[in-house]
């Protein structure tokens, strides 16, 4: 198992990519702190892991709050005495909007979760990893950071920010043997898909148009990102840091 005896924190672990990755990490031998503002979702993921024979701890955490993020890291250390992987995955989407129609509160919310949430994760997780002289800090970015679609300027800017933050943190962490890597998924079958489609519910015609822009002819499944995260968290990716790995079926070509 590639993550045997390791401890991983997964934010946004109550659904979608976060839940799939938490389960995949556990399958590879890691003990998981499932962090999510949605406590019921985090509990469901933790129970799934435990029923499969793994170890999981749920933490209700708002990634925009420093106290919550600090407490999440401390829970990992108190429970298992180490922190090997921190997956800053929690994020929020943007409904398709022209910039003049985006209110300030929406901008602040997107940047608070998508950027500040990653920054706070690094602020509290990286010092632990530096002291250990080992660890991997993963970030969920987006293809929107690399090839934005119309109407997603605020979301795209937030994801562009974390791609650059990933590179800056990688330089800072490298002397300590710690790696920092971003993952850029194309649209994925998660609860966030309908806002990306700008619909209350995903419609087949809109989905077909979206899929037509992806050379491999489908969207991501959460497991596509989970498999990538497992690889990047493992020693198989020992020389990968500071990069943004596109998991996009060719969308960014």
Helix content: 40-55%
Give me the number of helical elements: 8
Q: How large is the share of residues in beta strands?
A: 15-25%
CATH superfamily descriptor:
NAD(P)-binding Rossmann-like Domain
Oligomer: single chain
Rg over CA atoms = 17 Å
Kindly report how far apart the N and C termini lie: 33 Å
Poorly predicted runs are: none
The chain-level mean pLDDT equals 95
Q: Specify the biggest β-sheet.
A: 7 strands, parallel
Q: What is the number of independent domains?
A: 1
Can you put this structure into words, describing what you see?
With about 250 residues, the chain is an alpha/beta fold. It has a single domain (about 5-245), classed as Rossmann fold. The chain is built from eight helices and seven strands; from the N terminus they run βαβαβαβαβαβαααβ. The chain has helices at about 15-25, 40-50, 65-80, 105-130, 155-175, 195, 205-210, 220-235, and strands at about 5-10, 30-35, 55-60, 85-90, 135-140, 180-185, 245. Strands 3-2-1-4-5-6-7 form a seven-stranded parallel sheet, sandwiched between helices. Strand 1 (about 5-10), helix 1 and strand 2 (about 30-35) form a beta-alpha-beta unit. The longest helix has 29 residues, at about 105-130. The protein is globular, with a radius of gyration of 17 Å. The two termini are about 35 Å apart. The mean pLDDT is about 95.
